[in-house]
From TrEMBL:
<dbReference type="InterPro" id="IPR005055">
    <property type="entry name" value="A10/PebIII"/>
</dbReference>
<dbReference type="Pfam" id="PF03392">
    <property type="entry name" value="OS-D"/>
</dbReference>
<protein>
    <submittedName>
        <fullName>Ejaculatory bulb-specific protein 3</fullName>
    </submittedName>
</protein>
<dbReference type="InterPro" id="IPR036682">
    <property type="entry name" value="OS_D_A10/PebIII_sf"/>
</dbReference>
Length: 102
Protein backbone atom coordinates (compact mmCIF):
# COMPACT_ATOMS: atom_id res chain seq x y z
CA UNK A 1 0.00 0.00 0.00
CA UNK A 2 1.36 3.43 -0.95
CA UNK A 3 1.53 6.12 1.67
CA UNK A 4 -0.69 9.17 1.21
CA UNK A 5 1.12 12.27 -0.03
CA UNK A 6 0.79 14.00 3.34
CA UNK A 7 2.56 11.06 4.98
CA UNK A 8 5.69 11.50 2.88
CA UNK A 9 8.66 13.63 3.88
CA UNK A 10 8.79 17.01 2.18
CA UNK A 11 10.25 16.93 -1.31
CA UNK A 12 11.71 20.41 -0.75
CA UNK A 13 15.31 19.15 -1.02
CA UNK A 14 14.82 16.42 -3.61
CA UNK A 15 16.76 18.55 -6.09
CA UNK A 16 20.02 18.00 -4.15
CA UNK A 17 22.54 16.19 -6.36
CA UNK A 18 23.85 13.35 -4.20
CA UNK A 19 26.31 12.25 -6.90
CA UNK A 20 28.02 15.66 -6.82
CA UNK A 21 28.21 15.63 -3.03
CA UNK A 22 29.66 12.11 -2.95
CA UNK A 23 32.28 13.10 -5.56
CA UNK A 24 33.39 16.14 -3.53
CA UNK A 25 35.55 15.07 -0.57
CA UNK A 26 35.05 18.30 1.38
CA UNK A 27 31.27 18.36 0.95
CA UNK A 28 30.90 14.65 1.63
CA UNK A 29 32.89 14.92 4.86
CA UNK A 30 30.86 17.94 5.92
CA UNK A 31 27.61 15.99 5.56
CA UNK A 32 29.07 12.90 7.22
CA UNK A 33 30.29 14.88 10.22
CA UNK A 34 26.87 16.53 10.48
CA UNK A 35 25.06 13.18 10.45
CA UNK A 36 27.53 11.72 12.97
CA UNK A 37 27.15 14.70 15.37
CA UNK A 38 30.86 15.50 14.92
CA UNK A 39 30.28 18.98 13.47
CA UNK A 40 27.36 21.33 12.97
CA UNK A 41 25.14 20.90 9.94
CA UNK A 42 25.92 23.81 7.63
CA UNK A 43 23.07 23.67 5.13
CA UNK A 44 19.28 23.57 5.48
CA UNK A 45 19.12 20.31 3.51
CA UNK A 46 21.66 18.64 5.82
CA UNK A 47 19.59 19.68 8.84
CA UNK A 48 16.42 18.36 7.17
CA UNK A 49 17.92 15.01 6.20
CA UNK A 50 19.65 14.53 9.53
CA UNK A 51 16.27 14.97 11.19
CA UNK A 52 14.75 12.19 9.10
CA UNK A 53 17.58 9.71 8.50
CA UNK A 54 17.02 7.67 11.65
CA UNK A 55 13.32 7.20 10.93
CA UNK A 56 14.01 6.55 7.24
CA UNK A 57 16.41 3.75 8.13
CA UNK A 58 14.21 2.19 10.76
CA UNK A 59 11.09 2.27 8.55
CA UNK A 60 12.89 1.24 5.34
CA UNK A 61 12.16 4.69 3.91
CA UNK A 62 8.39 4.27 4.24
CA UNK A 63 7.80 8.05 4.11
CA UNK A 64 10.48 8.80 1.50
CA UNK A 65 9.72 10.27 -1.88
CA UNK A 66 10.98 8.24 -4.84
CA UNK A 67 13.96 10.62 -5.18
CA UNK A 68 14.80 10.25 -1.49
CA UNK A 69 14.72 6.45 -1.84
CA UNK A 70 17.06 6.62 -4.83
CA UNK A 71 19.43 8.99 -3.01
CA UNK A 72 19.50 6.86 0.12
CA UNK A 73 20.26 3.82 -2.01
CA UNK A 74 23.15 5.70 -3.67
CA UNK A 75 24.54 6.70 -0.26
CA UNK A 76 24.36 3.18 1.12
CA UNK A 77 26.01 1.73 -1.97
CA UNK A 78 28.75 4.39 -2.12
CA UNK A 79 29.67 4.21 1.56
CA UNK A 80 29.52 0.40 1.62
CA UNK A 81 32.02 0.21 -1.24
CA UNK A 82 34.23 3.25 -0.67
CA UNK A 83 34.17 4.05 3.05
CA UNK A 84 33.05 0.90 4.85
CA UNK A 85 34.56 2.06 8.16
CA UNK A 86 32.52 5.26 8.06
CA UNK A 87 29.43 3.33 6.98
CA UNK A 88 29.82 0.86 9.87
CA UNK A 89 30.34 3.74 12.30
CA UNK A 90 27.13 5.34 11.07
CA UNK A 91 25.20 2.07 11.43
CA UNK A 92 26.52 1.69 14.98
CA UNK A 93 25.31 5.23 15.71
CA UNK A 94 21.85 4.44 14.30
CA UNK A 95 21.63 1.33 16.50
CA UNK A 96 22.82 3.26 19.54
CA UNK A 97 20.29 6.02 18.85
CA UNK A 98 17.56 3.39 18.43
CA UNK A 99 18.32 1.93 21.84
CA UNK A 100 18.17 5.43 23.33
CA UNK A 101 14.63 5.93 22.02
CA UNK A 102 13.18 2.71 23.44
Amino acid sequence: MWADAEELYSSKYDYINVDEIMANDRQREQYYKCFMDLAPCKTPDAIFYKGHLFEAFTTKCKKCTEMQKQNLEKLVEWYSKNKPDQWNAYLEKVLKDAKGTE
